[in-house]
Fold this protein.
Amino acid sequence: MTLIHHDFADQMDRFGGNTALECFNCGTCAAICPLIYEHFPRKMIRYLQLGAKDRILENAKELWRCLHCGLCSRTCPREADPGEVILGLKRYVVANWRKS
Ligand code: SF4
Ligand code: SF4
């Protein structure tokens, strides 16, 4: 069962990537991402929005697939900056992996 942490987006302030709340899940970033991998990065951004910390930690290795090419951030229609959100989630995972 996935636990929902309603304050997770607020916690992400200190790691960067709090622009995730701007995302309206259009899927443009997943379509343009050269990884073409299971709706990445949209999927991770959705987990952040929902406060599904466990899902992010369970799938943390996926974050390190990101090439930081910036294509997703350049094409996002909501300025949610998905590339920066992925970087912020990596910081979060590094800070929390021992606790998971
Ligand atoms: S392109 Fe932007 S608004 Fe669309 S799913 Fe990705 S982050 Fe969200
Ligand atoms: S920055 Fe990362 S998530 Fe965004 S398009 Fe490039 S590889 Fe994909």
Notes: The radius of gyration is 12 Å. The chain has one domain: 8-99. The chain has a mean pLDDT of 92. Residues 48 and 67 are 20 Å apart (CA to CA).
